[in-house]
């Protein structure tokens, strides 16, 4: 467009900025923003431009750049909206600056904003990255944003809370939230269960998600291969579903059932939405710890394969499916 001397207005620049933010091209977003600053007034950065760049910086944990850009917004007379504050909280969460998460949340409430589903999802995601000793601070924010969601988060970290109570609270919560956020909420609730060793509660949430069809088409079977598709899950949810699948395979062997020639795990590839790194490296590391015989397909990124013979040999190392489940989680 520039070569053809076509007009580049602020709307087009903002579209480019948001695209860069969505796919994590932080340096490119910064260059576009800097270019806009040198343009005539009608094409200089506006609040949407700043929001996009803040989002890009937030995804890369660049706290100083986020705070500097927020100050620029305020000096230019732009007040941050809930979208900007959500990105800022995400940034502080990734940087493990829990005090700043709480401070920004308090600011949102003082500005008279009402936390929406995306904001609550962001707080849940922050919870998965929060040191154990500071979980209560984030859960308090979640509870003030959404009482039922906060109550469930409290139950998940409480060692004394029973699985029956967790199941009841979770089913009640998920029956009253919109479909668009159910999977994201479930992913972000399972993750802290795994990270703080509340594996039984992770199983409860996974079972509920399968029953309510929040997660669908995870395992599949054909005469020649059985597959597990976890590419849409967070790391914790994927690890939980993998352990259940392995347990099911072990039980199939105990019951005399024949495994197919090929077993496949589809993890996807690239950076994962709910993790600083790809889902495949997280699960691949877990497979190595277990000495599980899955290996990445040579020409297909994100697909891990094993044969019936190798899987059967590995599964039979455990005396029972219950012992296997313990090995998978500890």
TrEMBL record:
- Asked if the keyword Repeat belongs to this entry, the reply reads yes
Q: Which keywords, in A-to-Z order, does the entry hold?
A: Repeat
Cite the InterPro entries for this sequence.
PPR_rpt, Smr_dom, TPR-like_helical_dom_sf
* Smr domain: residues covered: 228-312
Using the record, list the residue span of the signal peptide; answer none if the entry has no such feature: none
GO function terms (MF aspect)? mRNA binding; rRNA primary transcript binding
- Which GO terms of the cellular component aspect does the record hold? chloroplast stroma
Give the matching Pfam families: PPR (PF01535)
Gene3D superfamilies cross-referenced by the UniProt entry? Tetratricopeptide repeat domain
PPR repeat feature ranges: 46-80, 81-115
Q: Could you state one GO biological process linked to this protein?
A: positive regulation of translation
UniProt record similarity statement:
Belongs to the PPR family. P subfamily.
- Protein name per UniProt: Pentatricopeptide repeat-containing protein At4g16390, chloroplastic-like
Q: Which organism is it from?
A: Elaeis guineensis var. tenera
- Which gene name does the record give? LOC105037549
